[in-house]
Amino acid sequence: MTGPATATRVLVLNSGSSSVKYQLIDMEDGTRLAVGLVERIGEETSRVVHTPLTGDAGRRERTGPVPDHAAALKAVADELAHDGLGLDSPELAAIGHRVVHGGMRFSAPTVITDEVLAEIERLVPVAPLHNPANITGIRTARALRPDLPQVAVFDTAFHTTMPEYAARYAIDVATADAHRIRRYGFHGTSHAYVSRKAAELLGKAPEEVNVIVLHLGNGASASAVRGGRCVDTSMGLTPLEGLVMGTRSGDIDPAVTFHLKRVAGMSEDDVDALLNKRSGLVGLCGDNDMREIRRRIDEGDERARLAFDIYVHRLKKYIGAYYAVLGRVDAVVFTAGVGENSAPVREAAVAGLEELGLVVDADLNAVRSDEPRVVSPDYARVTVAVVPTDEELEIAGQTFALVAADRRGGDPEA
Ligand SMILES: Nc1ncnc2c1ncn2[C@@H]1O[C@H](COP(=O)(O)OP(=O)(O)O)[C@@H](O)[C@H]1O
Ligand SMILES: CC(=O)OP(=O)(O)O
Ligand SMILES: [Mg+2]
Question: Which region, left, alpha or beta, applies to residue 22 given φ > 0 means left and ψ of -120 to 50 means alpha?
Fold first, then answer.
């Protein structure tokens, strides 16, 4: 199953719970041909932003209802077609899809067959906000280009190297095994990319460095990466465990759920919605955007202050925990929307950790840039850095590598 033998372009679809991010990249030289985003899917005020990066056409933006993910994918296809970059292009080699949950089975990028798709569907109960959106993306793209290889790149793949003692919950083994209950971890594509870039920033090979990666977006997770391999991560069976997130609680005593059902009369679905959609920052203060929370703090808002403090306290605990797991840490690296943009979060997360060699330089931390950068002073024992993540580029790279290997397999002369 290969695309046209000389095609080098990859379309990447990163379908989230309420958004689709996409990029069209030519893998011959890594040139981005178009990038875009459909957000607030399902609301009246959905927004489509498309930026062609070839030719003279500029950024286009429109607001209006995009009812569901299938409609969002249609909007993406239309925007690309408008610039002559449509899905019918013979230069397209493959479509790469971010798939959040790959369960036990997928530890590498995988060409999507009916059987692979069925397995991704089987995992919906453990990634209810994410896998359904990924599946719609895959189905729509396959319908538009049934001849092209469609590749799934799994959020869970990078974490399959976790040792058993980090991946297994301390519950009855037979029950856990019967239901495949274990810690899988997510955002792996980002953790892999960012830890590799961090090694580059340090001027070392990935094998030589130990890194703590803090991926702080809407969903947020931390990982401990030893010599390029993940040894622990904060998300678990589902993307609910670990850090405080935009709308998710992160770590919580599981007995809270029994209590809510027995005492507050909530159903399973009520509790699920509470912990996934009405908790985290939004549950604590009504806002999940860190910019808005900082603005409110500047105005003296106590609820916003407390939400920020709870967010940062959890983050600091994970930095300490992963420091202990790794023993020696070369770098603590911040990434994703909050990690890349919020200097106050970075500063507060390492405040008081000087004894661990962790310090942030106020001037360096205030720099705004799209480039990987160090924010700790020269004398610091541990480098604190900001490395912008690029899940789409990483997915495109892994997708194209698989297609290229397939081509070579199909034609030994190639
Ligand atoms: N300039 C900024 N300052 C602080 N936080 C920001 C800024 N820009 C974005 N963010 C935060 O980043 C979040 C989105 O992160 P992102 O990684 O794009 O999320 P996701 O990919 O999970 O949708 C926003 O909800 C907001 O809290
Ligand atoms: C797995 C996960 O939480 O993803 P996102 O941050 O895109 O919601
Ligand atoms: Mg993200």
Answer: beta
User: Side-chain half-sphere of 255: how many Cα atoms within 13 Å?
Assistant: 0
**Report field, pTM of the whole predicted structure over 0.80:** yes
**pLDDT tens-place string over residues 123-161:** 999 898 899 999 999 999 999 999 999 999 999 999 999
Contact present, 276 and 312 (Cβ < 8 Å): no
Neighbours of 253 (CB within 10 A): 8
3-state secondary structure of 268: helix
ipTM over 0.95: yes
**pLDDT for 24-66, tens place per residue?**
999 999 999 999 999 989 889 999 999 999 888 889 999 999 9
Residues with CB under 5 A from ligand 3 (ion): 217
Nearest-angstrom CA–CA distance, 414 and 403: 13
Token readout for 364 is 């360096």
Q: Which CA distances in Å does 62 have to 46, 49, 70?
A: 8, 7, 18
Domain 205-391 is found in CATH 3.20.20.190: no
Residue 329 pLDDT level (bands cut at 50, 70, 90): very high
Tell whether ligand 2 has an atom less than 6 A from the beta carbon of residue 389. no
335 DSSP assignment = E
Query: Domain spans of the chain?
Result: 9-154, 205-391
Between CA 316 and CA 349 the distance in angstroms is 5
Helix, strand, coil share of the chain (percent; to 5): 40, 20, 40
**Beta partners for residue 40, in sequence order:** none
For the Cβ of 280 lying below 6 angstroms from any atom of ligand 2, the answer is: no
**9-154 and 205-391, same CATH topology:** yes
- Residue nearest (by alpha carbon) to ligand 2 atom 4: 219
Spatial separation of the C-alpha atoms in residues 149 and 398, rounded to whole Å? 13
Pocket test for ligand 1, best of 342, 345, 389 (most atoms within 8 A of CB): 342
| Minimum-distance ligand 2 atom for the alpha carbon of 336 | 6
234: Cβ below 6 Å to ligand 2?
no
Q: What are the pLDDT digits (tens) for 251-292?
A: 999 999 999 999 999 999 999 999 999 999 999 999 999 999
Look up the CATH architecture of domain 9-154.
2-Layer Sandwich (3.30)
On whether 82 is known to bind a ligand per the annotation, the reply is no
Specify the pLDDT at position 57.
Answer: 80
Q: Which residue minimizes the CA distance to atom 6 of ligand 1? A: 338
